[in-house]
């Protein structure tokens, strides 16, 4: 069964999304999507005849909705340290970010400082009928969200994946031809994300 990954921008719109998994799994999901008439780009269902029962058995259709539904939980965890927050984000990423400069001055070589990857990585933030949702936030305000339809890897593997994608995203932002919140259609970016997923998520 496929794993769904999406980068969501400031306006809660997907900048990049991909279904990861074996070709057979994705092909089966694509077949279901075609028959059910889902529109992934608009995060909406075009076919009024699609039932919730069919959707629950169709990860490709459901994954964007599951990820989008988790945004409120991500925001709560990010700023207020909601119940989904792990021990490193118990005070909220926003609060840590606002006072992080002072801590970073004294811990400049410590990646686990107040502004380090440990606080950008939110871990598991939601569940939906056996699927787990993990998240990572960037300093630019983008949200990296993965919907795992099978048991996700451990936090160390997840964190490595998110940090790798975050680095790719930063390089994209630094491209003078890229506009903020523009969809990312680069084949190079897509390949590198899939390579990271193969290394850390799909083993």
Automatic annotation (TrEMBL):
CDD domains linked to this entry: TRAPPC2_sedlin
Gene Ontology BP, a term: endoplasmic reticulum to Golgi vesicle-mediated transport
Database matches in InterPro entries: Longin-like_dom_sf (IPR011012), Sedlin (IPR006722)
One Gene Ontology CC term in the entry: cytoplasm
Protein origin, superkingdom: Eukaryota
Organism in which the protein naturally occurs: Henningerozyma blattae (strain ATCC 34711 / CBS 6284 / DSM 70876 / NBRC 10599 / NRRL Y-10934 / UCD 77-7) (Yeast)
Pfam families: Sedlin_N
Stated name of the protein: Trafficking protein particle complex subunit
């Amino acid at each position: 069964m496929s794993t769904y990954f999406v980068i969501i921008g400031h306006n809660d719109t997907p900048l990049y999304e991909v279904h990861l998994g074996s070709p057979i799994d994705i092909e089966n999901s694509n077949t279901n999507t075609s028959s059910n008439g889902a529109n992934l780009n608009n995060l909406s269902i075009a076919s009024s005849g699609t039932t919730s029962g069919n959707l629950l058995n169709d990860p490709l259709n459901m994954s964007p909705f599951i990820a989008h539904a988790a945004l409120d939980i991500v925001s709560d965890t990010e700023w207020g340290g909601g119940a989904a927050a792990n021990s490193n984000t118990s005070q909220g990423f926003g609060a840590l970010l606002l006072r992080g400069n002072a801590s970073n001055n004294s811990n400049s070589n410590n990646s686990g400082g107040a502004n380090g990857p440990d606080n950008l990585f939110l871990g598991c933030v939601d569940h939906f009928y056996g699927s787990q949702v993990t998240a990572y936030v960037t300093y630019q305000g983008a949200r990296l969200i993965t919907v795992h339809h099978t048991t996700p890897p451990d936090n160390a593997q997840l964190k490595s994946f998110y940090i790798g994608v975050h680095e790719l995203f930063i390089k994209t932002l630094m491209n003078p031809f890229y506009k903020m919140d523009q969809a990312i259609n680069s084949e190079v970016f897509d390949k590198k994300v899939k390579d990271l997923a193969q290394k850390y998520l799909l083993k």
